[in-house]
Amino acid sequence: MNLSMTPAVKNLLSLLLLAFSLVDPTAAQEPLTPPPTDENGVLKVEVSFLLVDVMGILDAEQEIKADLFFRLHWTDPRLASEGAESRFLPLDSIWAPNFQSTKNRGAREMLPRVAMVDASGGATYTQRLTGRFGASTYLANFPFDRHQISFPFFFATSEGVVEYAVEQGPVVEISNLLSTPDWEISGASMSTEPLRVSEALPPVPSATLTIQASRITTHYIWNTILPLIVIVMMSWTVFWAPPAQIAVQFGFSATSILTVIAYRFALANQVPPLSYSTRLDVFLNGAFILAFLALLEVILTARLIYRERVAAAERVDLHARWVFPLLLVAVAARAFVL
Question: Which position among 7, 116, 235, 290 has the lowest Cβ density within 10 Å, counted as fewest Cβ atoms?
Answer without folding.
Answer: 7
